[in-house]
Amino acid sequence: MSDDRAIKWSYMDHWRSNGPSGPVDQWHSHKTMSAFLKQIKATGFDAIDTFDFRIWQMYGDYGGPAKYQEMVRDHGLERIVNTFHAADYDVRNYAPHLPETHENILEDFRVTMGRWSEIELDNIIVMPATLYYDMEPITEDKLKYSAECWNKVGEITAGFGVKLTCHHEFFCGIQSEPDIETFYSYTDPRYVSLFVDTAQHCIAGLDPVALYDRHAHRVSGFHFKDTRNVATGDDHRHRPDSEIMAPTTGKWFYEMGTPQGLVDFEAMMTAVRDNGYRGWISVEHDKANKEGGDYSESTAVSRWYAKNVLEEIYR
Amino acid sequence: MTGTQSGSIRWAYAINQWKPQFDDFVRREQHERALKTMSIAGFEGVELTYGTGRWEPLGNPQQLAANFGSVAGFREFLRGCAIDAVSSWYWDPAERSMEHLTGPLSPLVEADVPEIVAKAGWLAGALAELGGSVLLVRPVPGAGDVEPLDDDALDRVAACWDAAGRATAEHGIRLALHVDFLSALRRDHVPALLDRTDPALVGLALDTGELTAGGIDPLAVIERMGDRIWHVQFKDALAVDDAEEYLKPHAHWTVRVRGGAREVRWFAEPGAEGGLVDFPAVTRALAGAGYSGWIVVESDQSPHPAASALLAGYLVQRELGPILLDQRKAAV
């Protein structure tokens, strides 16, 4: 942290805007990227998070992560804080609960971390399991194998000065409270951290504040986002997809500050304060554009909430 | 946001871009999201546009009371969104009033003047309660809708706005003439009208986009009439009406809304791609002229209102606000 604030705010870079040929993301052109970064800065965010798969656009369009980060800085933002490693999980070659796929996963991270090594990252974030239906039934052995996999991955990322941190989507194989607890009991706190996504845990039926309080010593970041729905029935194991194709719910995720949100952010921020956390909180509202939503407006409303409500609790 | 506070200049954003059609933007939650968007982008105030009837909840004091309990109740709502004040209210007396059962009013018609003065006072009273300082008026109809303004017409118009300015001054509110690019005052008549008004009662609203679309350089207006500028609106112009389409009758719909024969988009937020206004130069000129008061940023209409507000906020925070701060430091 370069100033005396305990908390700084980073924006997880989901984005859509309307181009002349239809919706585009910010990576469409330098012009759309600049417009995105200006809006993030204008709302008072300090930095951004991004996705691992964007590295090809960084190399292809900007000359690499360091050059892209220069553009971020030119817009008044501090840096890229975290990257999300959105892997293509597959039980044939990439599944943490299947030890025979571990070497492939480890090699992926050796290569990946090398690509990112020209900039300073705090975390590389992973979904720590395959989709739920590819891992079920969830057994203690599978949780243990998964933990062993991430312990080894975390050792690799630590060698690059980056924390390996786990983000438990409601539709992944490690999402229930007992399974999360078992998983962390097998992981090494030196190499595996927890990244609390308030909405994902809430959808999975967990209290994100209680989860955070139990694991605060190994929490390395947050996605502050909201939801209006808790998963029911087979929502978490719907084939082929739960995240945007569940029959019960067309839109799971909403920006912080939304009406009818289920996450108690004031309690969350109080817990962040009381646990003495200092560092970055990431704000996320992926799929904000679904059902008529607008990324610019959702970003403004969420940052308004952080400034006018949460910073009154802890800053 | 402190980055946009520059001494005696305060920044606001105009609400009109959120209401493209009469049945849009009527719900409380829409107002809340728009106001929070302005606030987090660094704007302290909001400029309202006059409207009438139940689908104009923010259009006039009676509708504010109907929707928020009272004018004071609306102020509380604004504060809940971290917006400090209504900076200003834009009113075209040609707009009818369903609340008062009055039709279009014209400052050229002497019989209309008492009602214009009464309405100006009505709006100013509410504006004072909302923390504002300027009532903007459309001083004359569009050029295509009236005969050319001769000296007698200008005298009548000036007398009307002097009287209205006297009424708003009773509430501590200034009255500023907002000359748009369709106005019968376009080009030579602006100084001719201003010269006929009492400088203690009537000022000028400088709208960078309207002037530029009308082929008038806002820098020249600041240089010539800087001491009469009581209000400023920063919007960009994307096209110039160089074919003089403003002379067509009922140009509000065919020229302003539709975009004229070329169907252009006339206006956008400051800094938009293709924008014709040099905002750093205008900002420096205003500071040099000693302007103090609100600068209201607007896009008039926007396909993406939230994005427009945030992009404008970025420009103000990162470029225009610092220009004012630098000039203040240099002056000290």
UniProtKB/TrEMBL annotation, chain A:
Keyword Isomerase found: yes
Domain of life: Bacteria
GO molecular function: isomerase activity
Keywords: Isomerase
InterPro entries xref list: IolE/XylAMocC-like, Xyl_isomerase-like_sf, Xyl_isomerase-like_TIM-brl
UniProt domain Xylose isomerase-like TIM barrel: residue ranges: 38-298
Name of the protein: Xylose isomerase-like TIM barrel
Lineage: Bacteria, Bacillati, Actinomycetota, Actinomycetes, Geodermatophilales
UniProtKB/TrEMBL annotation, chain B:
Domain Xylose isomerase-like TIM barrel: residue ranges: 124-303
Gene3D superfamilies assigned: Divalent-metal-dependent TIM barrel enzymes (3.20.20.150)
InterPro entries hit by this protein: IolE/XylAMocC-like, Xyl_isomerase-like_sf, Xyl_isomerase-like_TIM-brl
Superkingdom of the source species: Bacteria
Residues annotated as signal peptide: none
Transmembrane domains' residue ranges: none
Pfam families the UniProt entry points to: AP_endonuc_2 (PF01261)
This protein's name: Inosose dehydratase
Lineage summary: Bacteria, Bacillati, Actinomycetota, Actinomycetes, Geodermatophilales
